[in-house]
## 1
Amino acid sequence: MLRIGERLLISHPEFSLVVQRKAKLVVLLDKGAFFKQYHVQEVKLPGKQSGKTTTKVAEIMAWREGKRIGFGTKEFPGSTRWIRLAAPGYILYSLSNAAHPNVDQPPPATGLGLAASDVEELSGLVNSHTSVTITD
């Protein structure tokens, strides 16, 4: 609740992601500076990967009971989130954790599995303008 005379600071972040395959990390940067990191729990990537790839977030996906659902629908809160990158085979998908013990969407054939709460948090911070750098 704001009161007369109080100030409201509105942040204007410029997030980007760095996926570090060998370190099994997804690092969130704001204006190029470290903001937060997430640990990759499962790696399922297709064949040989190039040393460095620059791409972007292609879409945020939400699942409930095996069906894709849209942002803003009544089913969206508590849904299983995925973040699909424009690079083929790269999906940041949700794995069950204490905060989300019932991830009902089976993982994709390829991608990087993170704790469901981490993917949910990330899905609220990135969008289709978010650049992504994938490294070894």
## 2
Amino acid sequence: MFNALFGLFSKDIAIDLGTANTLLYVKGRGIVSNEPSVVAVAPGRGGTQQVLAVGHEAKEMLGKTPGEIRAVRPLKDGVIADFAVTEAMLRYFIQKAHNRRTFVKPRMVICIPFGVTEVEKRAVRESAENAGASEVYLIEEPLAAAIGANLPITEPSGNMIVDIGGGTTEVAVISLAGIVVSRSVKVGGDKWDDAIVNHVRRRHNLLIGERTAERIKMTIGNAWSMGEPAQMHVKGRDLMAGIPKEITIDSDEIREALSDPVEMVVEAVLSTLEQTPPELAADIVDKGIVLAGGGANLVGLDLLLSDRTGLPVVVCDDPLEAVAMGSGKMLEEIDLLRDVALV
């Protein structure tokens, strides 16, 4: 009787703890939350930080807060940069998944970038345990992304996945439920936003914020010419006159702005292919490369990678949700989870 009740109140959850977005998967319900990894904090009593908002509400505050309130991203390049704020964010998502019941102790799967240090693994594990998890399993993001993209990772054949997140890009060749070759580079959607901010400042003497840069990227950002350039009106602060100003930019110049950070992704893919064993490389020639993560939505990125590698490249269904879906599927196959989880 007790075990049945415990199972009812402690639903297992999987978290794609990303630099840009955090997705939450609850066993039996699927993905229940997709919110920005942003927390608004203010000074509290005794030198502590008081959490004012998390997720969408906190992101709306980015660049708009008065002096004492800070809207912060507690993860940088896929790993924890602010331990206390990450813990508060995890606690918020756990309570949200369980309708704000605070006594729930769920089993938790958390995805982390490939090749993180032992210190970084321990930071994630301790944050989750302090936030209320009963058990914590750490899964490497490329594996979770491959499972979410429905690749046959347990078979003895090569599967290549490129997971482009907010802070990191993970490139991996997977066979027999293990990563054979992998490359992780600290470039992703955030670096692309920075490149747009810098380009607009240099070319137009206009200062824009990161939310505006993200909107530009999602509206007219591209990695491959798709015909007639698209245009967009952008507002910011004129650096010469110091007053608000509106300009018009087009997709061609944004492609130029993104060329350097996008090239870093291409180089990571080429480098991984060079290190791939020949038998697995032969499989990739047939199967091609699969793109996942929010960065996979950049228009024309698949065409650019196909042109540079000579291989077929496809974007998986719902690339932003691939890692969360893959880690969620692990909850259904607990034996596989224990095999691939990091110790």
